[in-house]
From TrEMBL:
This is Large-conductance mechanosensitive channel. PROSITE patterns: MSCL. Keywords: Cell inner membrane, Cell membrane, Ion channel, Ion transport, Membrane, Transmembrane, Transmembrane helix, Transport. The chain crosses the membrane at residues 78-96. It comes from the Bacteria. It comes from Pseudomonas lactis.
Length: 136
């Protein structure tokens, strides 16, 4: 089996396609959460703590010198990233929790025993009649 045919067999498996869709949706969800945190959550928090814009919070470690840019420790962006992570992790946790609950409901659903066919019922009756004749 050639490498190309092996790759083709791997790439069209359901799990790989599902994973790719999940990664794409996760990336889009990450952008939405980043915008939510940066544009909706952080501004009111900044107002509450005295009009601070978190994305501007930084410490200059070394000033710009000629062509060299300043060396800046941007801890405000780091704080924003932590909040992004917490929101994304919580959303994923809630999604997994819902999926697990649905799986438990599916597993808990009682499985009905298959109804016996007419042949099975007749064979059972014949067996019972034969047992009765042997005892008599």
């Amino acid at each position: 089996m050639s490498v190309i045919s092996e790759f083709k067999a791997f790439a069209v498996k359901g799990n790989v396609v599902d994973m790719a869709v999940g990664i794409i949706l996760g990336a889009a969800f990450g952008k939405i959460v980043s915008s939510f945190v940066g544009d909706v959550v952080m501004p009111p928090i900044g107002v509450l703590v005295g009009g601070v814009n978190f994305s501007d919070l930084a410490v200059t470690l070394q000033a710009a010198q000629g062509e060299l840019p300043a060396v800046v420790l941007a801890y405000g962006k780091f704080i924003q990233s932590i909040i992004d992570f917490i929101i994304i992790a919580f959303a994923i946790f809630m999604g997994v929790k819902v999926i697990n609950r649905l799986k438990k409901e599916e597993a808990a659903a009682p499985v009905q025993a298959p109804t016996p066919t007419t042949e099975t019922v007749l064979l059972g009756e014949i067996r019972d009649l034969l047992k009765g004749q042997v005892k008599s």
